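Deliverable D5.2: sample structural annotation.
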Amino acid sequence: MLTGSKSTFKVRQMGADIKERMLTQSGSNARRPDVSGLPCLPGEVVLRRAVMVRKKLTAREGRGWLSGTLFCTAFRVAFVPQDAPKPQDDADPVLLGDHDVALASIEKVVVVGPNRTKLVTPNSSLKFTPEELVLYCRDLRVVCFLFDRLTPDAQVLEITHTIAKTYQPVRAGCVSAFQNAALGSVEMKQFLSNRQRDAHMNWHESAADWERELERCGATGWRVSSVNDRFEMSTSLPRYLAVPQKVLDTELKKIFAHFHDGRIPRWCWRHPRGGSDLLRMAGFQNNIYHEKDDIRNLETILFGGHGNLCVVVELGDELPSPPDVQLAHARLRALCLGDISTSATVPDDKWLSTLEATCWLDYTRACLKKASEVARLLRGGGMTVALQEAEDRDMSCVVSSLAQVMCDPHCRGRRGFQSLVQKEWVTAGHRFRGRANYGRDNPKEEAPVFLLFLDCVWQLWSQYPWRFQFSDDFLLALHDSAHLPLFSSFLANSQRERCRRTQNAGQCYTPVNGGPEPADPPLPSVWDWSLQYGQRRQAGFTQPVPPAPRPLLNGNLNAQTDARGHQQANECTPGTVFLFSRGIFSSPAGLPPWRGGTAGVTAAAASISGVYRKSHRRAPSSESVPGLERLLKADAQRDPCRPLLPLLLGPCLGLWRECYHRGALHAQAFSHPPSGEHAHPLELLVREVRGLRRRLVAERRLSQGGDDRDAVTASAPSLPADEHLADARPGRSASITSSDGDGG
């Protein structure tokens, strides 16, 4: 694989077929540690290894350095510490260890040599022996390995080039090599096929699951329809839809053609107070003839069990588009991680302004604001709130999920949150595969919309941590899992695609009685946490049941509760429909149809389609608009069902540092400590500052007491530097602070 002298190596070109065979081969070391010392997955093959390597630990890991051995397999870059405990032979396999990095999650490989850095690509040649290996990951981690002087140069160069050549897909858009390397062995297929799903979680994949959700929410007047059982009505919607009981399936089939991609209005959730229903729908198609019966059935769906009021919330104007989200995330990534290969860094005095220029926090604030407005409308009761987006597959997922997190305590538990993601993202047809771009072949579709939603949830968690039953570590684990092309939850754009893959792979595999073996391995769900993390990490996903909430200052400067808003909103003319866009309620002259099409639904209330200009319902009255506006301004402090309204002022929103900053020090500061016991240079600087402060306080006290100050200044330099730093430990900061206060 490598040719050349000890100091200069050049990589030969390796054919795609040879590389794919190397990545998909299965060894005979199933369920036992590799002879080199790495506990391998069934069928996993070690390609290269390097001994006497140090790994730089993050702040969450305790900082410092950890000595061990570095491995590269066809699936991951694994690091085994010297004092790592021996794994049990009968233990279930875990995909990634605490110090492992999946090859599919690596963004780029950078090596650091004497006074130089270099970005390593599959065709690169190194003319120097690297001293450090830095892996930039797609999940915003930066993993740094330091090679010891006693590490053989050949091992350093070989493992560096092997990682650089195997972390990219064999072919553009092909991620099956990584899947087969981790899950392709016969033992692993059998293990996954016999895996049991969490029975306490609602997966929203069957009619019984949706019946359970309707019963949990108390959504009377709605039923589960199997009109899309074979995905003939819409290829992106789930098999089962919640629709009003008054609408028959024969009438429902006529409505699909009037919406983009057949994504008709459908029930999502009901508020526990007042029974307001939340709906989602795509843009209306105005190039199809609209019969009067179709419009009547459509309005029956929109109003559900409420005949008085429906508010259509337009999402296209105020929320970012997927390209905007992708650009903001790329800028945030460049700001937080930097690039040591180009020495491009942002000055400290411009860091906050650069963060503001990324627009990431602005987009987070916009999503939280829109979701809080929807939550306030749902709290009013006696209405339906329909979220409308051009394609109904991106921002509608964000707003609908956030509104339920704000209003429903069930969604703030771990299993409830997982069920929410299943309902509003996985089965609802979010383009996970296209937005994640696992194959790195479609950058135009890439946009981390789901990661924006996780950031919004973290903002709520940081403001109301006692109202959640899961921790921020759970959100971080879900964030990292979204970058691995191993889970069925994130490897398809719709439920139809997942069912096709299951029929072609998982269902045709018989683990006990033999039978046909699938070409692709069965993919697990992302909610199978024991397959990804150990018990210790999973224990940190949950936190105790929160106590009763305490009142908070309102960062939105809202007005007090006005009961007239609820009453006036519910006493509107029967069949009234309002459009809510850009914070303003408007009354369309007729509904439906709306103006839609490929340009979105940005002018939904501007005019009526030329095909059908008359509605059988009365024109809505504008008298209810003040009542709806009062709902948006009402304060919910005394409401037992009050939503978790976020604080949206500038200082109230922060950066998710545990996610975005966990690799910042690795990307900007590099040091070569002689041993793993030495602290980070920044910690040494803090200790030195604290030591100087103690000397200053001591001199101030001696001067006030009339003692000889020269004795202090003469005795202070006599302490060695190491003893001086050891005397100024962080544990003694409390006494230092109190001394400063006494000194005035």
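Annotation notes: Residues 681-705 form the longest helix (25 residues). The first strand starts at residue 2 and ends at 4.
The annotation will be released with the project's public dataset once the embargo ends.
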